[in-house]
Amino acid sequence: MLPPAISSGTGPIPTARISCRARPRALRARTCPRRSALKKTLLSVATLLALAAAAPLAAHEDRACLDDACTLQSLFAEADAGGAAAAGTTIAARRFGSWGIDTAGMDRQARPGTDFFRYVSGTWADTTQIPADRSSYGGFAILRDLSEARLRVLVEGYALGDPATGGDAAKIAALYRGFMDEATIEALGAKPLQPVLADIRAATDRNALARLMGRRGNFYDTFFNLGVSDDQKDPDRYTLYLSQGGLGLGDREMYLRENFAPQRERYQAYIVQMLQLAGWDRPQENAKAILALETRIAEAHWTRAESRNRDKTYNPLAMAEFATKSPGFPWADFFTAAGVEGAGRAVIRQDSAIPKIAAIFADTDIATLQAWQAFHATDNAAPLLSKDFSVAQYEFRDKFLSGQPQQRERWKRGVAFAESAMGEAIGRDYVKLYFPPEAKAKMDALVANVKAAMGARLDTLAWMSPATKAEAHAKLAGFGLKIGHPDTYRDYSALVVKNGDLFGNAQRAGQFEWDFRRARIGQPVDKGEWGMTPQTVNAYYNSVKNEIVFPAAILQPPFFDPDADPAVNYGAIGGVIGHEIIHGFDDQGRKSDGQGVLRDWWTAEDAAKFEVQAAKLGAQYEAYEFPQLPGMRINGRVAMGENIGDLGGLTIALEAYHRSLDGKPAPVIDGFTGDQRFFMGWGQVWRTLWRDDALRQQLVNGTHSPGHIRAFAPLRNIDAWYDAFGVKPGDALYIAPQDRVRIW
User: Fold this and answer.
1) Which of 5, 223, 263, 645 supports an S-S bond with 626, CB 3.0-4.6 Å?
2) C-alpha span between 53 and 378 (Å, rounded)
3) How far is it, in rounded angstroms, from Cα 395 to Cα 433?
4) CA-closest candidate to residue 26, choices 530, 497, 512, 510
């Protein structure tokens, strides 16, 4: 029997902690999870390249796929920097102990084989409070707080001038200060939203409603999400993707499972509240109809497990065929309003769901469709409106759904808003202050060692045939690497920003982002583009580019400390590097080859052997219980890629660490052996605490196992962990050697 689950653990921390609804619709792709596209992150971190309506984001929510094709999988001429950047004001990162581990945070009374999370982080867990404005807290959140504080100094240091002539700094200043001008926002009340609502009232037929769904930058929502990303079967060109949408609760399970009845009841009350604030007629009646509509859509949706299956989610369809293949929805109006009518085709992710949702649109009365759009537009815009709107949204989406007691301070939301619109411009100045060249050099060496270890592991795999090994080696050899920041940053010169026009700035930023993306359809892929900003605390693997990417902000303690013990660095950032490499060989990443092309390069026999081990790993994770949440379990199929990434990543990182010793014995530090410090480095990364409501949301909506599970679960399948800590039969975490999962 495993130890009782601790109410802790996390997935990715959002790059910017402001409700996704506060971000211009097209910009949510840079910082938010997609409502219906599966997302993947190293942590528990739409392309930054995809552009579609996003789900409401609570602090805990998982981001798994960063683009509409589910190919970016994460764990996240220069203008004058001005202000703080010019002044050189910096905020230092905190170090963890003298050699990389916070030994004071350990619980040395805990047995590693009984509860490894407590052994590494028990005292920290006992003495740490989740901040009132967070629903979870841990290593990722701590680094995000650091990044956020640094960005505040930068953003508040930009001088307010004329955005038309003052370059990026003046535009960022206008975005941030417009968000911080509470007096003006309160005085305006709901006035900025009225033109949006007027357009909805004027949309009295299905064609007009479809056109609203296609428009960008005006907070409208859609049943069908559009995005632009690298073509999975032609990685040198961009293509248009289309996926299921329409759900305000984020996932079909929230509508269909009986144990989420309280969430549905509260959601209906929230819909009433938002419609009342918007001045929409018959709020009670319409709220009931909206929930019923979304429940029908949820029934049509693919599950998260189905939506991450790349064998099923690449379905190109000529735009002229949508009307016959999915009748009932005015596709021509929709595509024209989105400005993609010339794309020729779209790749459908959930092909059997789209006709059903189109039929639901055709079968729903106009008044309900208008009310649905009015609610979602109001919900999308709420953080940019007066407190009655923004507080109402916080009370439901953050406090009720995720248990977050306090709304985030306004400056934090303001930084996030500016970041969502001009993240790379801010990132350029962040890099000048916080990413020294020597950090990149040490990371280059670490990646090279972990990559070499992966090659060595491939050679030793008894279950894999020579033919598949040859393809795997070719893929590994072609792995690209991006560390720290892009070589070329986004050009924001065409973005129109005005002082004192918060709502208009959000609309124009959304349109600017979408115009940038849609203009690329059919064009050559920008191989140098990044899917995350430098200040993002995350990392990702992009299967279409076959590359791993590590933004500057994650290259700090507890993940990476150039002055820490190498064993700790290999267990922490080395495990992360390995995790991202393994994403190229996990249950979905293995379906793309070394050129990024979606194709099956495995022999049938090897694939079958892989699936047996993957299923065995999934069963391990599904066995973990959460006593504070009866009936809730990890979905082994949904979290499969991340769990494989953790196990394989640690396996090759450990081999890389051993190779780095050049045959010499590892030193003993403070009584800990090299292997012990390696595994402690991994466990420390996953020191996290959760509020129960947020953990529930993670288990339903997330693609990552909770952090306290990740701290020990992969170790149970690694023989060296047993040897390092003397784990024996009878210990709670013990797995017999013949039952341990061995993939990579």
Assistant:
1) 5
2) 13
3) 37
4) 510
User: Does residue 11 contact residue 698 with C-beta atoms inside 8 Å?
Assistant: yes
Measured distance CA(434)–CA(241) in Å, rounded? 36
Query: Rounded to whole angstroms, how far apart are CA atoms 57 and 280?
Result: 25
CA 569 centroid distance within chain = 24
Mean pLDDT per block of 10 residues along the chain (744 residues) reads 30 31 40 33 31 30 53 49 47 93 97 98 97 93 95 96 97 98 98 98 98 93 97 98 96 94 98 98 98 98 94 96 98 98 98 98 98 98 98 97 96 98 97 88 91 94 95 95 96 98 97 97 97 95 95 95 94 96 92 94 95 95 94 92 95 97 96 98 96 91 90 98 98 97 93
Contact in structure between 522 and 343 (CB atoms under 8 Å) = yes
**């005015």: which residue's tokens?**
330
Question: How many other CB atoms sit within 10 Å of the CB of residue 126?
Answer: 10
155 Cβ neighbours under 8 A, 6+ residues apart: 172, 173, 176, 414, 415, 418, 426
- Nearest one of 210, 297, 273, 264 to 35, comparing CA atoms: 297
DSSP 136-153: EEEHHHHHHHHHHHHHHH
Q: What does the alpha-carbon distance between residue 478 and residue 20 come to, in Å, rounded to a whole number?
A: 35
Q: Rounded to whole angstroms, how far apart are CA atoms 111 and 731?
A: 9
What is the pTM (predicted TM-score) of this model? 0.87
**Residues linked to residue 481 through DSSP beta bridges, in sequence order:** 548
Please check whether residue 298 is in contact with residue 252, taking contact to mean a CB–CB distance below 8 angstroms: yes
pLDDT of amino acid 438 = 81
CB 34 within 8 A of CB 54: yes
- The Cβ of residue 726 has, within 10 Å, a number of other Cβ atoms equal to 10
CA-CA distance, 14 to 31, in Å (whole number)? Answer: 7
d(CA 674, CA 568): 8
Q: DSSP alpha helices (H): ranges in 261-330?
A: 261-278, 283-300, 304-307, 322-325
What backbone torsions phi and psi does residue 88 show, to the nearest 5 degrees? 80, 20
Residue 149 has, within 13 A of its CA and on its CB side, a CA count of 11
